[in-house]
Design brief:
There is one protein chain. About 0% of the residues lie in helices and about 35% in strands. It is built from no helices and 18 strands.
Length: about 230
Amino acid sequence: MARDRTCFLHPHSGAPPVAPRTNRSLTRLAAADTAGVDNGSLDTVAWSADGARLVAGGPYQIRGDHPIRLWDQGGRGRAREVAVSQNTLLHLVPCGAGWAVGATDPAFGLLSATGKKRLWQTGVIADRRGTLGDAFTLSAEGGQVRFGLGVGGQAPVLFDLRTQRLTEAPSPVPGLAAPDTTSLTVSNWEDKVSPKARRHAAGPPPIRDLPRPRHRPGPHPLRAWHRVAAPRL
């Protein structure tokens, strides 16, 4: 990302992750202060519109908060951090005197030159990540289901199919139970992209042979079959 025609930023996963370089010779001009960045990386970087400040963010986090790291003097100054999002910062671009930012909370907003939030909008749809075990329960006939609208089952609600109503349900609802996740052995599914299912030792149930057709008497025999119930697989 070019600040002007003389130098640009070179972010990468190794140390130091932010390094201004000259445009012609690719010579490193300086390395931004990244001391203490040991819990994630700074994958997205940007100068301010006037080139006086440098900002970076990414998966880097401190006690669950994902901050931006700010440097004055075009990236040569002392670093300071401002907590911004609850998840990875994906993109930073100059906007006025500050920056526009997008994060995987999901959230987006505008930051001032000091990193203060001027505008911040988080997601308005349900976030079902981490909704496991007792965070997702349902009735035996499937007519009621209790689940959370937030990560890990936060902000739980109850949906009743019979009344077609969605109501808040902060406490467990009697008669509802967590889904059966033990009858079928499934592994490698939590936080993975390639789940695996193991066959039962007995194998699939056998398919019963259908009876042979019998002919009706007459000059033009018709074929008829006995109707049999299809076996459950």
